[in-house]
Amino acid sequence: MSASFAAPTPNAVPLHLIARAEAENWLAARGVAAQNAAKTQNWSGKLGQILCLNEQGLPVRLAIGYGDTTERKRKRFGVVAGLSTMPAQVFDLVESDQDRTRDFALAFALGKYRYDRYAANAAPKAELICPEGVDAEKIEAIVSGEFLTRDLVNTPSNDMGPAELEAAARDLAKTYAADISVVTGAELLAQNFPLIHTVGRASPRAPRLIDLCWGTAGPRLTLVGKGVCFDTGGLNLKPGASMGLMKKDMGGAAHVLGLAKMIMASNMPVRLRVLVPAVENAIGGSAFRPQDILKSRKGLTVEINNTDAEGRLVLADALTLADESPCDVMICMATLTGAARVAVGPDIAPYFTQDNGLSHEIATAAAEVNDPVWQLPLHAPYEAMIEPGIADLDNAPAGGFAGAITAALFLQRFVTQTQKFVHFDCYGWQPSAAPARPKGGVGQGTRALFHALPRILNL
Hints:
Cytosol aminopeptidase PepA; EC 3.4.11.1; Macro_dom-like; manganese; Leucine Aminopeptidase, subunit E, domain 1; 21% strand
């Protein structure tokens, strides 16, 4: 049995998901004792409410409120809101339709996550038998990939630098018999990755480009993730309040490694490539400077108007490499701009693509699996904002307008051969605890992509 679910047992406690509109009839069918218990526990089928029907102090049946449509829209995965208060029993979900069953099984599995590397953080003791009709292996692939993303983002930068991110990629490659190669330090210059080297050269923790390949047949899928393991802002130093969450600036790398794990664990028939430029943007005598003009792998020159806009620089070299080989679909994921958060808040992952069919599949899948994303425009008139005149490109246009869009337009300049290209500007952080998502690192858009890929790639 998978880590997400318990083995079947005859002693399992029956578990019901009951919507508000069904609550009265459901209680009536179970008699006066159930109705009295609901009154005592003030239970009405509200989303996430738990009703425990006891016999001699032991739970003999549990009902969780499934709420109504409005409640479910306002509180994603709210049906497992009370997971931590459920009795330490094994539960067997019964009398539920397939949509509810699938949603609950996934939410229950995601809700078991706890980050306990540095301090005890007990996971919920309740266990669930995998409901009939639910693909346990698929849920396990999703959950294991999501938990990898969360673990990588949650790890503080003293234990998650470029070398440690490489080690995580190597562990993943070993688990799934993938090939992996890494270009490190000065060798980046020798192999023509000048922007990755420049951004990371001031740190004693050497910059590197991680390149993982898996699969020998099927469509070619390339994932590129920003791996800035800590971002001081460089010589354009961030204020303290803005530096506080910069351990998550490698969230793009965490996302693509988590998505890669989902793909490999489910044995998706693709030829997968994962590229992660891993650096630390530090301060030192060799740090790159404002007004420097740098040459990229693609040959385009970039004027540096803010050393705190470094993520797009390292991605530029990685995207150029990805675009040099045939690729059916390329996905870039990065914690790239604060402007994206201003636009859509922390809960939604905005994405950019010129391919309408690709966008439709992503948006459709996101709605189906409750993983919210939103397309923002690659507005062509804003191209002038990233053209400084003194160089081909400007890494940080002045004015403060459309920051997420101009960053996406910048990245698009480095992908000229691959037709199906999408860039996600993720936040990668849950600001406060929510159902199935404890406070801390979180994946955004990866479940939607995993669900959409078979249709996108015609598998």
